Amino acid sequence: MIVYGSRYGATARTSEEISKNLQQEKLDVRLINLKEENVTDITDYELVIVGSGIKIGRWTKESEIFLKKFQKELTKKKVALFVCSGSAQPLNEEEKEPEVIENYKRNYLQEKAIKYNLQPIALGFFGGVYNFNKVSWLFRKFMAGVKPKLEEAGFKETQPGVYDLRDLNVIRDWAKGVANLVQS
User: Fold this and answer.
1) Residue 7 maps to a domain
2) Using CB atoms within 10 A as the burial measure, which of 54, 106, 156, 176 is most buried?
3) How far apart are CA 181 and CA 184, in angstroms?
4) Structural domains in the chain (count)
């Protein structure tokens, strides 16, 4: 089972990519957008992957609610967590420092696992999507300084106002690694 919360679509598309790759590895997968479907039972699933987008350092409320609701059951299952975040793709030399990236991973993934007493088999830290068309005027104003940094870092608009920082090869490799851990 893959469940996710997505604000602007990056986590949804990442979840779809993970699902596709797990299916290629001969795993049966149920993909659930937590904004659209209420999960009432996880008993039948050997592996539960929980994904979330990150905005201002926070998981989506849907993914957070899922972790809280199923905390007890998840401690007895194979669990993997992943996030999509602009922080996964450094935009300047300072952000490329290994300790900076490790700090983000710790804040977004390891501390979440600790909070819910989980022992994940895998943690995925993937790039996000900056979609300046879907954010409020105030947030767009706040993020105005990011656009030039994206361009300087070599990221181009995939469509007007949209910068996709995800590396699909990294996502695919992570999914295959998860499949290997489940099948071994």
Assistant:
1) yes
2) 54
3) 5
4) 1
